[in-house]
Specification:
single chain, 238 residues, alpha/beta, Rossmann fold, 2 domains, 10 strands, 39% helix, binds adenosine-5'-diphosphate, binds magnesium ion
Length: 238
């Protein structure tokens, strides 16, 4: 079966800085695929290429078999590709409930959106307790949960999840990744997961790519990479 998302030999640059060269990767429907690498490797740029926030200079992006690399960003979102950006961009002065409803603002199926609201909150009981609270008063971990929950309110076909572990305690990282794993298993949610934290990402994903200076340096089934000596020494610190 064709993958839900496929990047074919993608290059992208910021002015004269080449950020990606010849990046190819695929994300099968219903799976979690990790994109790992150090700070500055080009992970966020790769997600931004899919969302059409960064232009492609060479190569092709296929979503569900259709080339989307010339589409407008809103059209990509309209087809169910939802990015959860790094750095917690929530609406601080709006309530948790309002933030969640913002995730569904493009939808016209009000009844289904209302039932998704309940279903999403089952994964994030902490948010249910704080529905009327201003989002800006949430802890870092709760804000990350709100971002993921808001993305789910769009009923996405593909979630581009950018460094959900950033700045969180190991306990919270574990909590968030447990939810991510459940969403994948129970809702068959397809996720392209960007992480610097290779060990947590390899534990939840089926396949992984490691970016170095804008190029895929290593790829393979996550289990295989976890056992690989070079990967262990360089990326897992053991
Ligand atoms: N808006 C930008 N303008 C110029 N250079 C950028 C911009 N965003 C990222 N870069 C550069 O592109 C490279 C890849 O960045 P990025 O994709 O953000 O890496 P990562 O997400 O892996 O940390 C880095 O060298 C970074 O400095
Ligand atoms: Mg980044």
């Amino acid at each position: 079966m064709a993958p839900l998302l496929e990047l074919r030999s993608i290059s992208a640059s910021y002015g004269r800085i080449q950020a990606l060269s010849g990046v190819s990767l695929s994300v099968p429907e219903g799976e979690i695929v990790s994109l790992l690498g150090a700070n500055g490797a080009g992970k966020t740029t790769t997600l931004n290429v899919v969302s059409r926030l960064v232009p492609v200079t060479v190569g092709s992006v296929l979503f569900d078999g259709t080339a989307i690399e010339r589409w407008a960003p809103h059209k990509v979102v309209g087809h169910g590709v939802v990015q959860v950006p790094e750095g917690r961009e929530i609406f601080h002065d709006m309530s948790v409930r309002e933030n969640l409803l913002m995730g569904a603002y493009r939808r016209t199926d009000a009844n289904a959106a209302a039932s998704d609201f309940e279903r999403v909150l089952e994964y994030f009981p902490v948010l249910r307790e704080r529905l009327r609270q201003k989002a800006g008063t949430l802890s870092g971990g709760e804000q990350q949960m709100l971002l993921i929950a808001r993305a789910l309110m769009a009923r996405p076909r593909l979630v581009l999840l950018d460094e959900p572990s950033l700045g969180l305690s190991p306990r919270l990282v574990q909590q968030i990744f447990d939810i991510v794993r459940r969403l994948n298993r129970e809702e068959r949610l397809t996720i392209l997961l960007v992480e610097q934290n290779a060990s947590v990402a390899l534990a939840v994903s089926s396949y992984a790519y490691i970016l170095e200076n804008g190029e895929i340096a290593i790829e393979g089934p996550s289990e295989q990479l976890r056992a690989d000596d070079t990967v262990r020494k360089t990326y897992l610190g053991n």
